[in-house]
Structures are given as C-alpha cells and as structure tokens.
Amino acid sequence: MIYNLVSLIGIFILMLFAWALSTNRRVINWRVIFWGVVIQLLFALFIFVVPAGTRFFLFINDVVVKVISVAGEGAKFIFGRLALPPGTKNEFGEESLGWIFAFQALPTIIFFASLMGVLYYIGIMPWLVRLFSRVFTRLMRISGAESLCTSSNIFVGIEAMTTIRPYLLRMTRSELCTILTAGMATIASSVLAVYVMILQNEFPMIAGHLISASFLSAPAAVVMSKLLYPETEKPETLGVDVKPYYEKESSIIEASINGANAGLKLVGGIIALLVAFLGLVALVNLILNYVGLKVNALTGLHIDWSLEGLLGYVFYPFTLIMGVPPSDAFEIARIIGERAVVTEAKSYMDLAVLLANNTLHDPRSAFLATYALCGFAHIASLAIFVGGTAALVPERTTDLSAVGPRALLAATLACLMTACVAGVFFTNTSILLGGG
After folding, report:
1. How far apart are CA 268 and CA 270, in angstroms?
2. Residue 431 gets which letter from DSSP?
3. Cα gap 407→89, rounded to integer Å
C-alpha cells in the first residue's frame, strides 16, 4: 500500500528535521540512531507480522481489558450509578447515567497506581525495567542511567526519575534532555487505562495498541533526543548497566497503599490541568475567533482561527508525512496539535468522537492517531517533568530548564515517529484493528 511506503519515508524525514535543528550536527552518534530505528522496526514487525507476536498482542489486550473491568468495582461502590459504564446496570437494576469521565475513568488511575506499586514490590517491574535497560545500553551504547530511566518510563511517569536519583547531579545536558524526552514521549500505565476506556467502544483493540506505542516510543525518544541534543561529553555511566534506585516498602500492603496515594495525587493533577487548560484554551479561542472573523471578512479567507485549528495547520504536513490519507489529514492534525496544549486525554476524547460519528474516511487515520497521541508531549507535562526532576536535584534546575523545550520538541517528534513505524505495517485486514 502506498501509504505504508509514505510512513517508511516519513521516519527518515522526521529524523532529518530533527538533525536540521540539532545543537551540533557534526557529532551525531549514528550507532544510537541506527539501533534506535532497528529496535522499533523489529518490535513492530514482531507485533504486526509474526503470528506469535500477534497472539501475544491479543493476549496483552485481553489481559488489560479484563483488569480494567474489575478496576471500576471500587468506584461503583463509592459513586454508585455515576461510575456505571454506558449501557450497563448494577445489581439493583439501576441503569448508567452515561459516560462521566471523572467517575468512570479517573478512579481507574488510583487502582492501576496501586497495582503498579504491588508489581514493583514483588519484583516484576524492576525485572522488566532492567531487561529493556540492558537492551538499550548494549545496542545503542547510551549511558546506563539514560537507559534505565527510558525503560522505566515505558511503565511509569515522573516516578521514573527517582530510579536514577543518585546519578542526576552528574548527568550531562544531553543525558538530561534524553530522560526528559523519554518521560514526555511515553505514557504511564496508570493513565493508559483511562484512554482504553475512552476508545474501547470504537476501537476494541486499543489496549494492545497503546501498550505497543509506549514500547515503540522509548527508543524513538532516544533517537530524537540524540539528534536534537547530541552527546559532546563523556557520561559517567556510559555503557554500564545501572541498577534502579528505589525505596522498597516494608510490606505488600504498604506498597499498595503508597501506590493508591500516588494515584490519588495524579488524579488531582489531571483534574486541575484539564480544568485550567481547557478554560484557558476557551479564552484564547474567544479572542482568536473575534480577530479571525474580521480577518476572514477582510481577506475572503476561510481560516480556522481556533487554537486547535491553527496548530492543525502547523501539524498538517507532519500528519501527511506519517502516512495519514489527505482526506483525514487535517482532522488528525487538529487533535495532534490540540494535544500540545490541552493534554492527550482531551485529544483521545476527540478521536473517540470522530470515530463514533464516522467522520474519518479511512481506518488507517485513527490507527496512526492512536500511536501519535500516545505520549505526555504537551506544555503541562514539560512543567511537570522539569519541575519534578528539579525537585530531586535543585542544583541542575538551570540545565533542566534550558534543555526542557528541546526535549518537548524531541518527544513530539518521537510520538510522530512511532506512528510512522506502526504505519509501515498497517493493513486494513489486520485482526489487530478489531473493527476499528
């Protein structure tokens, strides 16, 4: 299919774009770039083409969906009918009041954060993190601290920074850029459940795709970070395996409680961000629409002057590069641009609306959007990751603030690159679409 070829070419166009904006185009470590791309392509090949990989994908998707189905039991006990998913009834025969984000989606974050705390306590998560860390360190020859933090970000969010806390003070600027990029180019498992709930009705296999997107985005983050901010110093842990640093709880109960408390804080942060940013965007749109109406009237143009519309124009060429058909390119560009200011949660909600209304002409468009949106690559996240890391190592606040904007750009390009890699292997007949 021609669009698969476009996606393949798009991988290299995005890397060329990053290289053109590099702080030093002469010292690029091409081993990092080569193996970063190879790891992504091999993983995508295994998932989308190899039968065993496809079966594994379907297994993971089913596991996540079943876990999510029990995750809401606590919310139903606390919130009653408000927590019932649309179209369902409780044991008293009371029907759901419809989709309510705050009572149906957000409580799952607390459950998954608690579950992750338990998985860390019993050693499953540390083992997985070190496994991926060794692959990144040995193949791409980046520092052990970078590898460990990048691997951790596949599963958790800002908490990943604590795993390399002893090394933060002495990390190079390029390393700092990489760990910030990895944090913003991936999503935490605790919020993944929210996006599954948002899209599952329209895209039944969404859980597996979000998990594979987070895996693909980790090496993509390293590639884009090292193109935009290449290493010019010698990292302390270069080529060395690093053990994760974390304070283990005294019991599995304490791990569960601490995880739940962390999840509650995350829910509060998400609510605050959505309330504040959606309100601010509405205010900006009010001003832009007022100005835009006058400009359109004077010039005869038909420009969408909303913030989402203007960002859609910016991301439109990148959407075409990803391999999205032109008939859907602007709609997808709008929600990708929207993610930059109002978080991926709102963008996934809008993608669900597009699917529910049959607005998109090609299933490929929603498929690629799912991968492109799978990351914390937005302004609010930049503040969270820079501020959170600076709290651990105040001495590096200036350096973190300096590399932060470049890390956000690298994370955005990494998410687009992930969509390109997935687009290379897309087929309309794939069972992994599941009716999407």
Report:
1. 5
2. G
3. 46
Span 265-282, mean pLDDT?
A: 80
Contact 6, 321 (CB under 8 A): yes
CA angle 88, 91, 93 (to 5 degrees): 65
Which residues are CB-contacts of 320 (< 8 A; sequence separation ≥ 6)? 6, 326, 329
Q: What's the sign of the alpha-carbon dihedral 190, 191, 197, 199?
A: negative
Inter-helix orientation angle 307-322/397-424, to 10°: 50
Alpha carbons 406 and 399: distance in angstroms, whole number:
12
The label of the residue with tokens 């995350």 reads 266
pTM higher than the cut 0.85:
yes
CA distance 179 to 221: 9
390 token code pair: 């600076």
- Residue 176 CA to residue 179 CA, distance in Å, equals 5
The runs of H, that is alpha helices, within 167-299 are: 173-185, 189-199, 206-228, 252-299
CB 237 within 8 A of CB 145: yes
Q: Using only C-alpha atoms, what is the Rg of the chain?
A: 21
Q: For the chain, what's the residue count?
A: 436
Quickly tell me which residue has 């750009």 as its tokens. 409
Query: Which of residues 412 and 278 earns the better pLDDT score?
Result: 412
Helices then strands, counting H and E runs in the chain, come out as 17, 0
d(CA 165, CA 161): 6
* Chain centroid to CA 131: 21
CA distance 74 to 193: 15
- Three-state secondary-structure class, residue 89: strand
pLDDT of residue 179: 94
**Distance (Å, whole) CA 218 – CA 3:** 24
**Residue 247 pLDDT greater than 50, yes or no:** yes
Residue identified by tokens 């520092």 is: 143
CB atoms within 10 A of CB 127: 10
According to the 3-state scheme, what is the secondary structure of 381-421? HHHHHHHHHHHHCHHHHHHHHHHHHHHHHHHHHHHHHHHHH
Mean pLDDT on 386-405:
90
Residue 122 sits at φ, ψ, to 5 deg, of -85, 0
Q: Does the structure show a pLDDT above 60 at 431?
A: no
Tokens 């995750």 sit on residue: 71
pLDDT at 189 over 80: no
Residue 273, pLDDT > 90, answer no
Tokens describing residue 254: 């304490």
Is 121:248 a contact under the CB 8 Å cutoff?
Answer: yes
Q: Is the pLDDT of residue 329 over 80?
A: yes
Q: Is the pLDDT of residue 239 over 80?
A: no
What is the reported pLDDT for 430? 62
